[in-house]
Design brief:
single chain; 444 residues; alpha/beta; Rossmann fold; OB fold (Dihydrolipoamide Acetyltransferase, E2P); 3 domains; 6-stranded parallel sheet; 15 helices; 35% helix; globular
């Protein structure tokens, strides 16, 4: 019996997929990457914003068509879209055979058994009582992995449906996370990317205080993983202790992902973001003062209800002056069940599109200048493979998170092993990628 998997959305969703893969593998099923030969396909959906919901529905329809053209007998849907629209999916998408909510990962073997008997199946366990973590089958290359340190979110941003879908913040105990980090190291992981809806809030529910810095120290002390990376850090919760850890810990890469969303105080207030523009500027200044050369990544939203031209101009000026190393932007999407969807002064879609284009043009200029400044420097690169048609190696530096940031292409006189650290001298800058030449193998 061959089972296929499709995982949509964020890295946090991917770790859920990996847990389900392990459970089905342990139950004796064969996992296939080829949807055409799968008898059952598990689609882990995303339902964060309108475009993600549309992508999930398109995938359901496309995969279900394999019942006619391939070997597919049943389609199981899991994840955020399912959790959010559990009542409607069977009715509107009858080609789906089973539904599992975000708290029901452990029921995936039972769901497969049911659909193979020709039965419809549903499981929606209490998401706030579901197990955190669990054994996984890694779908990332063996040298890099995501490690989810908490589930859910308590921030209650007015535009965000995640608390409705995923529930309240639930941090995993430090000892459990350290054990998983050790297991990942044993598998060959050299880059550990810590993730949660808000990593900086880690530990508040469990220990009564922010414990992200303590968690990083525990991982550092109990493993030898060379790169530890922090993603999804909120500016109002970046403690002095965390800044000091970034400064002194050589294995905590000098990189931080800080989703600011906006800078205008009125917009931030209506978003229910914790902290104002001064809070954001202060966090960035503290990080750059304590950790010279730190790579900062952020995201911003345009078109939030009531965003005036003055608010948008302030955001543009902030992006120009702050010069983020990595930047992404998206337009506001009015999500059902969120407070922002009911706010007055909704912005026209054409205005949103114009503002988004303007913001990304600004960042393109910023990025081009930052990229040019790296020509002539020599940096450590984690090799991710060799592009045979192009005849060049590809990798990432500590300044590039997997899946979301740029690449470094480099020439070498010999084939470099995937997962090896090398030193590369940068000779050319592209819009978001760099090109260079191998100077030495850095791995011991």
């Amino acid at each position: 019996m061959k089972i296929g998997f499709v995982s949509l959305g964020c890295s946090k969703n991917l770790t859920d997929t990996e847990v389900m893969l392990y459970k089905l593998n342990a139950a004796g099923y064969e996992i296939t990457p080829d949807a055409e030969e799968a008898e059952v396909i598990v689609l882990n959906t995303c339902g964060f914003i309108e475009s993600a919901k549309a992508e999930s529905i398109e995938n359901i329809i496309d995969l279900a068509s394999l019942k006619e053209s391939g070997t597919l007998r049943a389609l199981i849907c899991t994840g955020c879209l399912v959790e959010r629209y559990r009542e409607q999916i069977f009715e509107e998408l009858p080609e789906v055979d089973a539904l599992l909510g975000v708290g029901s990962l452990e029921d995936i073997p039972e769901a497969v058994e049911a659909v193979l008997r020709g039965e419809k199946y549903t499981s929606f366990r209490d998401k706030e009582a579901s197990p955190l973590g669990g054994d996984r089958v890694l779908t990332t290359p063996e040298y890099t992995a995501y490690l989810k340190i908490a589930e859910g979110c308590d921030n209650r941003c007015t535009y965000c449906a995640i608390p409705l879908i995923r529930g309240r913040l639930r941090s995993r105990p430090i000892e459990d996370i350290v054990k998983e980090a050790q297991d990942l190291e044993a598998l060959g992981v050299k880059e550990l990317n810590l993730i949660a809806q808000d990593t900086t809030r880690y530990g508040l529910d469990l220990y009564g205080e922010y414990r992200l810095a303590a968690l990083v120290r525990a991982i550092t002390e109990n493993t030898s993983i060379p790169w530890i990376r922090l993603l999804y850090c909120y500016p109002d919760k970046i403690t002095d202790e965390l800044v000091e850890e970034l400064k002194r810990n050589d294995r905590l890469v000098k990189y931080m992902d800080i989703p600011v969303q906006h800078i205008a105080d009125g917009v931030l207030r209506d978003m229910n973001r914790h902290g104002d523009g001064a809070t954001i500027r202060s966090a960035i200044a503290r990080l750059r003062e304590a950790v010279p050369g730190i790579t900062l990544r952020t995201t911003a939203m345009v078109g939030f209800p009531g965003e005036s031209e003055e608010d948008f101009e302030e955001l543009c000026a902030f992006i120009k002056e702050t010069r983020f190393d990595r930047f992404g932007a998206f337009s506001f999407s009015p999500e059902e069940g969120t407070a922002a969807a009911e706010l007055p002064d909704q912005i026209d879609e054409d205005v949103k599109a114009r503002r988004l284009d303007t913001l990304m043009e600004i960042q393109l200029d910023v990025s081009a200048a930052l990229q040019q400044s790296k020509i002539g420097s020599t940096i450590t690169v984690l090799c991710e493979g060799f592009d045979i048609p192009a005849g060049i190696h590809v990798g990432r530096s500590a300044a590039d998170a997997p899946d979301v940031d740029g690449k470094i292409f480099f020439h070498a006189p010999h084939r470099v092993k995937e997962g090896a650290f090398v030193r590369v001298k940068i000779t050319e800058a592209l819009d978001y990628d760099l090109v260079g030449v191998l100077t030495e193998d850095a791995d011991a």
